[in-house]
Amino acid sequence: MKITVMTTDEQFITLEVDPDEPVENVKALLEVETKVRLQQQQLLFNGKEIKNADRLSSLGIKDGDLVIMASGPSRSYHLIAKSAPSDDLRLNADGSAVNPGAFQQQIRGDSNLMAQLLQNDPELAQAILGNDLNRLQTMLKERHQQKSELKRRQDEEIALMYADPFDVEAQRKIEAAIRQKGIDENWAAALEYNPEAFARVVMLYVDMEVNGVPLKAFVDSGAQSTIISKSCAERCGLLRLLDERYKGVAHGVGQSEILGRIHVAAIKIGKSFYHCSFIVLDSPNMEFLFGLDMLRKHQCVIDLKENVLRVGGGEDTVPFLQEKDIPSRFLDVDRYLNKESGSASETSVSKVKNDKELSGGQSSGATRGRTTQTPDFEAKVAKLTELGFGRDAVLQALQLFNGNEEQAAGYLFGG
């Protein structure tokens, strides 16, 4: 007889099977067709899961019937959950082990189960093989949450398949599911064709000398003016030239005081010297920022193909620094800024605004903000947990990537 299998991504597969065929053999055929491992498949008929040992005829499956195939990343946890027969090895309601030490030893001693875990969920397998029981408990909870969330979503999808076509609420949910499917496909395409989008971007730094003192300069075409910190200006012997008539307030992450302006000093880029003016900020989180005013003045070209900064119309060329050559305090901006100020804003470029009531001078520049929990942070958490990840893992990933939802998703799926 022939049966039709519909996958969760709405593919329809027709199989020629024997009525007395066990379900496990059907899964083996589907593994060849869909590339989804047998252990990760869940077959449903009339909304109920069918077991591997069941035979099609005994389940009432007839010629032309529809079977639904669900698959997900939590099947490895399902294998573990069934592997603990004794009371000491039972799981709590939240998915953690009642006796984590005994549980760990039991799983380690099952070579077949460990082989399946290493293949299907290497991260959980490493936690079982490691010595950190707290990490193991956390991962067991996360896998339990993933399994519960996956089951909830699958139940919703099955319910929608049998929903009344005239039910407005059901149609709204179907529309939302179709939209989410488009988003997931777009995300999968990005992983395949544009994986760089999920990686952290290292900002552009070059080696410069200011008044003979070597510095790592941040090249920022989005900053209106070139900025130097008070401590850096002092180290370069320029603080004596500070014109305090240009005092003001820089608005960005909280507020930074503009101490004034240094009108001209020599900077060395490559082998040549150039005249440069600076805004001086009372901000230790940044030493020197080469802004748009000086980039324009000295006809600079940011050449990302060759990964160099060309100065003076190409007369001098200096390479942008590799990540290993950039001081860690510049790379870990969020941690560094947190020491400076308890205020928060999304990562952005903010123009420095002069407080003209404090002085009659005119100046401008730029400061950088840091990423923290924004008003839509919980919405990001909700979206990622809907994909089957535990809340703790989602929070950790969002913190790791400064709230960037796409990078956090790439990290979670990559893990």
UniProtKB/TrEMBL annotation:
<keyword id="KW-0064">Aspartyl protease</keyword>
<dbReference type="GO" id="GO:0031593">
    <property type="term" value="F:polyubiquitin modification-dependent protein binding"/>
</dbReference>
<keyword id="KW-0653">Protein transport</keyword>
<feature type="domain" description="UBA">
    <location>
        <begin position="374"/>
        <end position="415"/>
    </location>
</feature>
<dbReference type="Pfam" id="PF00627">
    <property type="entry name" value="UBA"/>
</dbReference>
<dbReference type="GO" id="GO:0006508">
    <property type="term" value="P:proteolysis"/>
</dbReference>
<dbReference type="Pfam" id="PF24669">
    <property type="entry name" value="Ddi2_HDD"/>
</dbReference>
<keyword id="KW-0963">Cytoplasm</keyword>
<dbReference type="GO" id="GO:0015031">
    <property type="term" value="P:protein transport"/>
</dbReference>
<dbReference type="InterPro" id="IPR015940">
    <property type="entry name" value="UBA"/>
</dbReference>
<feature type="region of interest" description="Disordered">
    <location>
        <begin position="344"/>
        <end position="374"/>
    </location>
</feature>
<feature type="domain" description="Peptidase A2">
    <location>
        <begin position="215"/>
        <end position="294"/>
    </location>
</feature>
<dbReference type="InterPro" id="IPR009060">
    <property type="entry name" value="UBA-like_sf"/>
</dbReference>
<dbReference type="InterPro" id="IPR000626">
    <property type="entry name" value="Ubiquitin-like_dom"/>
</dbReference>
<dbReference type="InterPro" id="IPR033882">
    <property type="entry name" value="DDI1_N"/>
</dbReference>
<dbReference type="GO" id="GO:0004190">
    <property type="term" value="F:aspartic-type endopeptidase activity"/>
</dbReference>
<keyword id="KW-0378">Hydrolase</keyword>
<dbReference type="InterPro" id="IPR001995">
    <property type="entry name" value="Peptidase_A2_cat"/>
</dbReference>
<dbReference type="InterPro" id="IPR021109">
    <property type="entry name" value="Peptidase_aspartic_dom_sf"/>
</dbReference>
<dbReference type="InterPro" id="IPR029071">
    <property type="entry name" value="Ubiquitin-like_domsf"/>
</dbReference>
<dbReference type="InterPro" id="IPR057273">
    <property type="entry name" value="Ddi1/2_HDD"/>
</dbReference>
<feature type="domain" description="Ubiquitin-like">
    <location>
        <begin position="1"/>
        <end position="69"/>
    </location>
</feature>
<comment type="similarity">
    <text>Belongs to the DDI1 family.</text>
</comment>
<keyword id="KW-0645">Protease</keyword>
<keyword id="KW-0813">Transport</keyword>
<dbReference type="GO" id="GO:0005737">
    <property type="term" value="C:cytoplasm"/>
</dbReference>
<dbReference type="Pfam" id="PF09668">
    <property type="entry name" value="Asp_protease"/>
</dbReference>
<protein>
    <recommendedName>
        <fullName>DNA damage-inducible protein 1</fullName>
    </recommendedName>
</protein>
<feature type="compositionally biased region" description="Polar residues">
    <location>
        <begin position="360"/>
        <end position="374"/>
    </location>
</feature>
<dbReference type="Pfam" id="PF00240">
    <property type="entry name" value="ubiquitin"/>
</dbReference>
<dbReference type="InterPro" id="IPR019103">
    <property type="entry name" value="Peptidase_aspartic_DDI1-type"/>
</dbReference>
